[in-house]
């Protein structure tokens, strides 16, 4: 399971929880403007926007899970098993493989509006990176400071949904997840009024009773409702520290502790990392399961006119601030 989130305070922020039972050796990777990005069916881009994000580097190629470019456009891929469908080569289309999709969009587009233009002619083509790294069934959230969309390549073609709630999880498809919020319309941040029945005097014995019925399950439909409610009612100051902290708190509402989602003998899904990018400033903040301290990498501290990837292995060891 995974959850993606975007939020605007003074700046715009974008990030995700990556929930999985194993790591692919991911790290924060900066792709500078002159690193040649090759495509299986499209021409190499020898110069493009610089990108920062979480990726596995395989044979020198940055396989991004999520990323943000120097213009502030961001994108994250989340699992979409049983629904994602990729297609054979289509004549007259931009044939891009799913593992090339993040650099394809972030390398060329400054805004969601520009991404929509590329999406009009894209065909997500069914070509594996390698036998060891076959294609993953994904869907994607793409955001800039003013709008967010969700892209789902399904049996009946490519769907591009407006995303007015700024969150995304996994199955089922996004249109259902959005519609399902109707079922929770009576939740409220306020202390609720009694509506149970005429003549019944309810006792508001606890704070937070407006949230009774908010799902708490780890399944993706429950997480969607939980994180949408949390994000849309979130209040925070607009300075950098408050915004980053609040972003981690919102994703903390759907954080997965090891042990609650068993996949096999000694195999559990857990939140491997949580990220939060200040997309305005190009700073990638992250936390890992083993290290609850916030770490940061600023893309502008790298040579963005260079041609070599910068890789930052994840700091995954707890660092306790002893006070005596
Ligand atoms: C599994 C990851 C998404 C996490 C997620 O959504 N979990 C939910 C599980 S579930 O639905 O609830 O069951 C996805 C996100 C990005 C993916 C990776 C990126 O796409 C980059 C490469 C792409 C290669 O084709 C496969 C390996 C890979 C390194 C991918 C492995 C895996 O599929 C990742 C890490």
UniProtKB/TrEMBL annotation:
Record bears the keyword Transit peptide: no
BP term (GO), one: lipid metabolic process
MF term (GO), any: choloylglycine hydrolase activity
Entry keyword set: Hydrolase, Lipid metabolism
Pfam families noted in UniProt: CBAH
Signal sequence, renumbered to the chain: none
Pathway field: Lipid metabolism; bile acid biosynthesis
Regions crossing the membrane: none
Choloylglycine hydrolase/NAAA C-terminal domain segment(s): 2-308
Keyword Hydrolase: yes
Family, as annotated: Belongs to the peptidase C59 family.
Protein name: choloylglycine hydrolase
């Amino acid at each position: 399971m995974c959850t993606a989130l975007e939020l605007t305070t003074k700046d715009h922020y974008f990030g995700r929880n990556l929930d999985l039972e194993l790591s692919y050796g991911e790290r924060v990777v900066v792709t500078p403007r002159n690193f040649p990005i090759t495509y299986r069916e499209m021409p190499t881009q020898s110069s493009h926007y610089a990108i920062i994000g979480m990726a596995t580097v395989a044979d020198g190629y940055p396989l991004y899970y999520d990323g943000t470019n120097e213009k502030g456009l961001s994108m994250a891929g989340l699992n979409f098993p049983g629904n994602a469908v990729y297609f054979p080569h289509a004549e007259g289309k931009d044939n891009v493989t799913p593992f090339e999709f993040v650099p394809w969009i972030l390398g060329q587009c400054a805004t969601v509006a520009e991404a929509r233009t590329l999406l009009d002619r894209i065909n997500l083509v069914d070509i594996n990176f390698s036998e060891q790294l076959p294609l993953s069934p994904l869907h994607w959230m793409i955001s800039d400071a003013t709008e967010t969309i969700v892209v789902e390549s399904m049996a009946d073609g490519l769907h591009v949904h407006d995303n007015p709630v700024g969150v995304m999880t996994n199955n089922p498809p996004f249109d259902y997840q959005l519609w399902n919020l109707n079922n929770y319309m009576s939740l409220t941040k306020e202390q609720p009024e009694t509506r149970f029945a005429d003549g019944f005097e309810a006792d508001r014995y606890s704070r937070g009773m407006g949230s009774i019925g908010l799902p708490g399950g780890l399944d993706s439909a429950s997480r969607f409702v939980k994180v949408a409610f949390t994000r849309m009612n979130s209040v925070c100051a607009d300075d950098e520290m408050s915004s980053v902290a609040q972003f981690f708190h919102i994703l903390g509402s759907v954080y997965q502790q090891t042990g609650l989602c068993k996949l096999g003998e000694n195999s559990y899904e857990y939140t491997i990392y949580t990220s939060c990018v200040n997309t305005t400033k190009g700073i990638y903040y992250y936390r890992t399961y083993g290290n609850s301290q916030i770490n940061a990498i600023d893309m502008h501290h790298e040579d963005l006119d260079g041609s070599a990837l910068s890789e930052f292995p994840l700091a995954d060891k707890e660092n306790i601030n002893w006070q005596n």
